[in-house]
Specification:
This protein is an alpha+beta fold. The chain folds into 5 domains: about 180 residues, no CATH class; about 140 residues, no CATH class; about 110 residues; about 80 residues, no CATH class; about 100 residues, Roll (Chitinase A, domain 3), CATH 3.10.50.40. Helices cover about 45% and strands about 20% of the residues. It has 24 helices and 22 strands. The strands form 6 sheets. Strands 5, 14, 15, 16 and 17 form a 5-stranded antiparallel sheet that branches. Strands 19-3-21-20 form a 4-stranded antiparallel sheet. The longest helix has 29 residues. The relative contact order is 0.13.
Length: about 700
């Protein structure tokens, strides 16, 4: 069995799981070295980020991304779209962060993994979960050690499989080091008896309390005097509340790339001319594959799955006539019935796959298949031969059984072999995967199906149309060099202007645009009130099927917001504080020794409310909402004593704890063990987050992606 084929079949999903856990580790080369002025300028241009004082270049990062892309491809993912790329970039970045943060920790603590440990983790009595996952029979749940040993022998002659296996081996090593580190952190944690008792009290003790609240809105704003010096003092004391991210505002217009009347007519004329050629074609399928925008699939489909445009035509089973032209799905089309036949709706089959490729020529695969067919005909069990020889590991473990499948699910040669063979027939098919020995086990009832040949021509904008629209966009950009001109032109031309505020550096979307990352990247290099230019200093962006001309209308840089930008927020917060002081003074005047909560409420025109079954870890107060200060005060207040004032989110409170419910005593050891388990579970995460915070991570990926 091919080692790489095994990994592709067995590990395709599993590799994504591992990568998602960010366990992999690649060796990263240092692209830029030295300290010359030129190198520093180059470094600044290509700087993707900084982690713990260490510069991360775009080249280093992209190299690792491409390495991981190759792993995905080896896992059987033929197409890597932008969403997958985005996921891969995020995985690579998070792993780079983890490496830079933890490598020093591992080194300082003397954490490593020896070659003997690796051997034990792979071939020992308790293999690593990755090994167990790869080499466990999914149908029986039994770990196949002999298969593991045979596989490891094969990778010496298969360089691709070897590279792929080394990826998994690196996962194992890094996971082991991470486990050692986490164990050290966990073992360093301890819980005292007092800690356990206090935590249990916070979790278990509940209070019922009465309260009154005077809302901040009850104090007129006009009664509060706030000076400039007050604002400055409050701002300086609470600066951390006014840190902000980099944001931009953008306004833009679009010029949609749509087919012209001439483009539509050209497509229609082409399909009309081609109809006659299609009718005369000796080999319609070959003609379709040479002429049409879409290749012929050669699948038979039942009438209900055929487009309504074609159903009446198909039912006539006229193989001589070409139907159309008709318009459908953005294309002009003509159709011809290639064949009609009674075929099963679905079949159940089993197979043995003998792969072919660089390591095994097709002729060799065919010879192996012939030998196996002879064994089957001589009485050897198909199941046994499939389990021992099939390189489709997913089905091999169940004797090659693929279950039931409808027409069109499998590749064409395999599909047709299954749907034309009789029940019990033994046949073969050659596909891109190799040679398949197929036995049809069951077939559903026959239905009438049709093989329809379609020649299509998509209605698309021609290069002439595209250039015309681009010229319009370019002329618009050139004629509107100021923001005022931009808006005046939009008004005069009755164009639709789109606006997006608070655009973040890593944002992926803008209203009405498909994948506008190039525009967003350029937005963060633009000046406020100026037209946005791309990397080539062009003002017209091609985004999907549209051209875009845009202005940057506001710049907010990352960092501490100046007072002038947040003065309204500061004023609001300060107003709330001063109102709280006024309300607290009112409570003091109306309270005093011997006064109950009811007395204070009557004098101030307030209503006494009740809250029950509240503990320290409650999140909200019924009918009020989030009031953490009130919950904290009530949880620690003395019973039957009026307490306060308490400054809350919605107003200022006075409270009276009516009762405290204490649950029965619990086993102290059990409490300590439970709290320690919680600490250990949180400890490794919090340790990592602390290291992460101290690393002063600078992420500039938005400059490139």
């Amino acid at each position: 069995m091919s080692a790489i084929q095994f990994l592709r079949e067995k590990a395709g999903v599993f590799v994504a799981v591992i990568i998602g856990l960010a366990l992999f580790l690649f060796v990263v080369s240092d692209f830029f070295g030295g300290g010359t002025g030129q190198n520093r300028r180059i470094r600044k241009y290509y700087e993707l980020g900084e982690i713990a004082g260490e510069y991360i270049s775009y080249q280093d990062f992209e190299e690792r991304v491409q390495n991981l892309v190759e792993i995905y491809k080896l896992s059987g993912m033929a197409t890597i779209d932008e969403s997958v790329y985005e996921s891969i970039r995020e995985q690579v970045w998070q792993q780079m962060v983890r490496e830079k943060i933890q490598d020093n920790q591992y080194k300082n603590l003397g954490i490593g993994v020896s070659s003997e440990e690796v051997d034990e983790l792979v071939l020992g009595n308790n293999p690593h979960p990755i090994v167990m996952q790869l080499f466990t029979d999914q149908s029986t749940g039994v770990f196949n050690r002999s298969f593991l040993v045979n596989f490891l022998k094969q990778i010496d002659i298969d360089e691709t499989a070897k590279r792929y296996w080394l990826f998994f081996e690196n996962e194992i090593v890094n996971d082991r080091m991470n486990t050692k580190y986490n164990n050290l952190v966990s073992k360093g944690l301890y819980v005292t008896s007092k800690q356990a008792e206090f935590d249990n009290m916070l979790n278990s003790n509940t209070v019922d309390f009465s309260y009154i609240m005077k809302n901040y809105a009850s104090v007129p704003d006009s009664s509060v005097k706030i000076s400039q010096s007050d604002l400055e003092a409050y701002y300086n004391t609470h600066k951390n509340n006014y840190k902000r991210s980099a944001l931009r505002d953008i306004e833009y217009v679009t010029f949609d790339i749509v087919p012209s009347e001439n483009d539509i007519k050209d497509a229609e004329d082409w399909i009309t001319r081609t109809k006659e050629e299609f009718a005369a074609a000796v080999n319609p399928v070959e003609f379709i594959n040479l002429s049409a925008d879409t290749r012929h699939t050669s699948f038979y489909v039942p009438l209900e799955d055929i487009s309504e445009n074609l159903r009446d035509f198909v039912k006539s089973e006229d193989k001589a006539t070409v139907f159309g032209p008709y318009q459908e799905d953005g294309s002009f089309k003509v159709a011809k019935l290639i064949d009609a036949a009674n075929r099963p709706d679905s079949v159940r089959a089993r197979h043995i796959l003998i792969s072919s490729g660089q390591l095994r020529p097709l002729t060799r695969a065919q010879a192996i298949a012939d030998s196996l067919i002879n064994l089957i005909k001589s009485g050897v069990s198909f199941d046994v031969l499939a389990m021992a020889n099939s390189e489709d590991q997913g089905s091999a473990q169940v004797g090659g059984d693929l279950g039931w499948f409808p027409e069109g699910m499998m590749v064409v040669p395999f599909n047709n072999a299954c749907f034309t063979a009789k029940k019990g027939d033994l046949t073969t098919a050659e596909t891109i995967y190799g040679v398949h020995i197929i036995e049809v086990l069951e077939k559903s009832k026959d239905v009438r199906k049709y093989d329809i040949g379609i020649v299509d021509r998509a209605i698309t904008a021609s290069s002439t149309t595209n250039q015309k629209i681009y010229s319009e966009a370019s002329q618009f950009a050139g004629n509107n060099n100021t923001y005022e001109q931009f808006n005046n032109s939009i008004a005069s031309l009755k164009m639709n202007k789109r606006v997006a505020n608070d655009v973040a550096p890593a944002q992926k979307t803008l209203p009405g645009l498909e994948n506008p990352r190039s525009l967003i990247i350029s937005l963060f290099s633009a000046e406020a009130g100026k037209i946005i230019l791309d990397a080539n200093q062009q003002a017209v962006f091609e985004i999907g099927d549209t051209y875009v001309v845009a202005y940057c209308t506001r710049i907010q840089e990352e960092g501490l917001a100046p007072l002038k930008d947040v003065v309204n927020d500061v004023r609001f917060a300060l107003l709330k504080d001063k109102k709280a002081e006024i309300i607290a003074d009112e409570y003091e005047k109306n309270g005093g020794e011997g006064k109950t909560l009811d007395d204070i409420a009557r004098q101030m025109g307030l209503v006494v409310e009740e809250a029950t079954q509240i503990n320290f870890r409650s999140y909200t107060i019924p009918n009020i909402g989030s009031e953490p200060a009130l919950i904290s005060a009530a949880s620690s207040a003395r019973q039957n004593v009026v307490s306060g004032p308490v400054k809350g989110n919605n107003g200022v409170f006075m409270i009276n704890v009516n009762s405290v419910t204490t649950p029965p005593e619990q086993d102290l050891k059990l409490l300590k063990d439970r709290l320690l388990a919680t600490y250990q579970m949180r400890g490794t995460y919090e340790a990592y987050e602390a290291l992460r915070k101290s690393a002063n991570i600078v992420d500039k990926r938005y400059k490139f992606y």
